[in-house]
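Query structure, 299 tokens:
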């Protein structure tokens, strides 16, 4: 008997007819096989007859807020095992479709994340604007322009999760710190997330930093968790986290300033030209905020 060959595995976030978002894991194979799927210890596991082909066994990083990693293993000569590592509880539905390739599809609901976000008001503050261009890269990319697509990607993720989002600027306009604070005050924000890039006189210095308001004790925890998730997504140097006096006026609202990358670094300025990096940065920030709302503490 010829064993089905596993040829691909991936995951993405999709929306159903009811406007609910879910994580979908797809395993592609050259044929149908009997399979058993079950959940235990925060993992969803699928086992069946098959061989892994045209792709390496091992792990695939996901970090979509619900799924951290996918693992594909050959556990016997004729048997494979897929493990979906869930960060939070999730119920799933399972279906098999198609012929060549046959797709084993696991749909995992994201209600845990919705419950964290649905009653939250989050201010996203794209730094600088107008005549205030912010930092400038070696090839002349300016901070005020690169923070905007990251802010918009982040807005999309927060909205998907059910939060209400307020932006301090939508266009290329100068906005004072007082005006930015006023947005947070008038909407009774639960969180204030400012998006910036770092600048350094040494163009070799790079990395991620997240600074925080000294007035709210929760800000430090939020900053740390966002930094950890950003570093994991972008795989750049960790420049730490420090108090930012300018944010004292934010009062008790947890407020952070995310320095997503260092724009004055040659390599990182290049990264900032890529929409993929904007999206990854937004995902990292989102995951950190999600960890914060889930009550996690820095490891
Ligand atoms: Zn800045």
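Result returned for the query:
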């Amino acid at each position: 008997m010829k064993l089905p060959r596993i040829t691909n595995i991936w995951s993405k976030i999709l929306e159903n007819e009811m406007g609910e978002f879910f994580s979908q894991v797809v395993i592609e194979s050259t044929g149908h096989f009997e399979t058993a799927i079950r959940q235990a210890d925060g993992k969803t596991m699928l086992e069946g007859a098959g061989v892994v082909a045209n792709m390496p066994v091992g792990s695939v990083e996901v970090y979509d807020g619900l799924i951290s990693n996918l693992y594909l293993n050959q556990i016997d000569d004729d048997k494979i095992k897929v493990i979906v590592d869930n960060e939070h509880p999730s119920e799933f539905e399972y279906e098999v479709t198609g012929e060549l390739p046959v797709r084993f599809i696991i749909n995992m609901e994201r209600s845990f994340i919705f419950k964290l976000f649905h009653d939250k008001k989050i201010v996203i503050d794209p730094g600088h604007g107008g005549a205030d261009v912010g930092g400038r890269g070696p090839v002349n990319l300016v901070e005020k322009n690169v923070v905007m697509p990251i802010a918009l990607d982040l807005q999309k993720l927060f909205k998907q999760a059910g939060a209400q989002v307020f932006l301090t600027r939508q266009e290329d306009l100068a906005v004072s710190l007082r005006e930015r604070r006023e947005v947070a005050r008038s909407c009774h924000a639960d969180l204030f997330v400012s998006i910036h890039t770092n600048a350094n006189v040494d163009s070799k210095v790079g990395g991620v930093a997240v600074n925080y308001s000294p007035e709210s004790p929760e800000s430090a925890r939020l900053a740390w968790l966002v930094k950890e998730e950003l570093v994991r997504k972008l795989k750049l140097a960790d420049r730490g986290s420090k108090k930012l006096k300018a944010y004292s006026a934010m009062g008790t609202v947890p407020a952070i300033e995310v320095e997503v990358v260092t724009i004055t670094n040659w390599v990182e300025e290049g990264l900032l030209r890529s929409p993929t990096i904007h999206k990854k940065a937004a995902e990292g920030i989102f995951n950190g905020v999600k960890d914060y709302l889930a009550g996690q503490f820095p490891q």
